[in-house]
UniProtKB/TrEMBL annotation:
It is a multi-pass membrane protein. It is found in: Cell membrane. It comes from Crassaminicella thermophila. It comes from the Bacteria. Its main location: membrane. GO terms for cellular component: plasma membrane. This is Dolichyl-phosphate-mannose-protein mannosyltransferase. The chain crosses the membrane at residues 12-29, 92-110, 116-134, 141-159, 165-191, 203-223, 366-389, 401-418, 424-443.
Length: 450
């Protein structure tokens, strides 16, 4: 087989998988019924308010409970198109998902020359059930994953730093406006450069460039929050809220719990009720809760470090090793068409349907368990190299070690502290796919050598 023919075959495979991935995403949003609930409903409501000219509001009040990046982008898109239709949001997700796949491919060919790794990881990302199903969800998952993939792409490639560093800062700023914990990402970007090149001057320039541009992107929203709420709120005011709900004496599963169920003394409960006006005011507009919740969470963690650690590991299990029930809950939750058919089916038809449904769920769960396992294994294999790389100037690491390990660990650390549930694994699944392909390649080569 000639090199030219082999190259054509590789291009045909990449394009073919891309088209299959596009078809599956479009088919899903057009054929699988769902409706937005909880946070997803809030995103749609805020985007619709932006479309109608009511600004970033909820129930007639200014709000900054969630990052503004996604609802503002969606509301702006609605204005451009001319209507706040949910199918527009879903088509937007499809194109963002396809752009993420393109970014993943270019990240892969920069990280490694090994064809097995490139095409294995690329295929997983293209056909991953989560990445297909969540195009049906009006939420931040697809949006933040696209921004994150661009951020990694900008670190993997080398071109004029006068352009690359500001671009990186702008995208990190956009990510921070969507997920506020990205405000810490300049440290990850600087660490990546240090581990790869050990050039302190360039590291400092990169860090300052990204930090300044990120701050510039966030600053107008921070100023808006100061005007609306009378205090310094960089992006959102739910960090203290989430922090305490997930770290209090009555939390046993490391996940969100209703405010009415959290631990609170009589005096503290009275403060909560005053802020919420005895249930008449939505928690999402009650920015004052952050002020009283965050100190309580810190106090409890300081007094109960072992309990906090237990909750942290429970959160990691909930995020990475709880299967894919979230797809059923958020991406295909409208069961009315099935229920209508179910009424007239005989027992054999019902059993066949349930068996098929459980089989599909089982295959999805197994895939996520495999990806998460290899993701954590890859981090474990490289953690010593990362630590040595920080402190030994002569130790320079490759991007294929640094990027999957450091970025996955960044998300894991955030989820360990705050909250865990399966949909939070979404932004790192393409990194886990890369880690899986790298691990499988090592196993494949080891077996071959043996």
């Amino acid at each position: 087989m000639s090199k030219r023919f082999k190259k054509y075959m590789e291009i045909a495979y990449v394009v073919g998988i891309f088209l299959v991935a596009l078809y599956l995403r479009l088919w899903w949003i057009n054929n699988v019924p769902t409706f937005p609930i909880f946070d997803f409903k809030t995103y749609q409501e805020i985007a619709t308010n932006i479309f109608w000219g009511a600004g970033h509001t909820l129930n007639g009040e200014p709000v900054a409970f969630q990052g503004m990046g996604y609802p503002v982008a969606l509301g702006t898109l609605y204005k451009i198109v001319g209507k706040p239709d949910e199918i527009i949001a879903k088509r937007f997700n499809v194109w963002l998902s396809m752009l993420t796949l393109i970014c993943t491919y270019f990240i892969l060919i920069k990280l490694t020359k090994r064809k097995f790794v490139i095409y294995t990881a690329y295929t997983i990302v293209a056909l991953l059930p989560n990445y297909i199903a969540y195009t049906n969800v009006i939420g931040t998952e697809v949006f933040i994953t696209f921004l994150f993939s661009v951020i990694i792409l900008l670190q993997a490639y080398s071109f004029d730093n006068r352009v690359r560093y500001p671009l990186l800062g702008l995208f990190v700023g956009g990510a921070a406006l969507t997920k506020p914990f990205f405000m810490a990402y300049p440290v990850i970007a600087a660490s990546t450069l240090w581990l790869r090149e050990k050039d302190l001057k360039r590291v400092i320039i990169l860090f300052l460039s990204v930090m300044i541009l990120m701050t510039g992107v966030i600053a107008p929203w921070t100023y808006r929050n100061y005007k609306k709420f009378g205090r310094f709120i960089p992006v959102s005011y739910n960090s203290g809220y989430v922090f305490y709900l997930n770290n209090n004496p009555y939390n046993a599963n490391g996940a969100w719990m209703p405010i009415k169920d959290v631990y609170a003394s009589e005096t503290f409960r009275k403060k909560i009720n005053e802020i919420l006006q005895d249930g008449r005011r939505s928690e999402k507009v009650a920015h004052e809760l952050e002020v009283i919740f965050k100190p309580k969470a810190k106090e409890w963690i300081k007094e109960n470090p072992m309990e906090f650690l237990r909750l942290g590991f429970i959160r990691l299990k909930s995020t990475f090793f709880s299967g894919t029930w979230d797809i059923d809950a958020w991406a295909q939750n409208d069961q009315r068409p099935v229920e209508e058919k179910y009424k007239v089916w005989n027992k054999d038809q019902k059993i066949t349907y349930l068996r098929h449904k459980n089989f599909v769920r089982a295959m999805r769960d197994i895939l996520i368990y495999v990806l998460s396992s290899f993701g954590f294994i890859y981090i474990t294999l490289n953690v010593v190299n990362i630590i040595l790389g920080f402190f030994k100037k002569e130790v320079k690491l490759k991007n294929e070690i640094i990027i999957p390990t450091l970025n996955s660990a960044f998300f894991i650390a955030v989820y360990f502290v705050y909250e865990g549930q399966p949909r939070y694994n979404f932004p790192v699944l393409f990194l886990f796919a890369i880690s899986t392909a790298l691990c499988l390649d090592m196993i494949r080569k080891g077996v071959k050598a043996e």
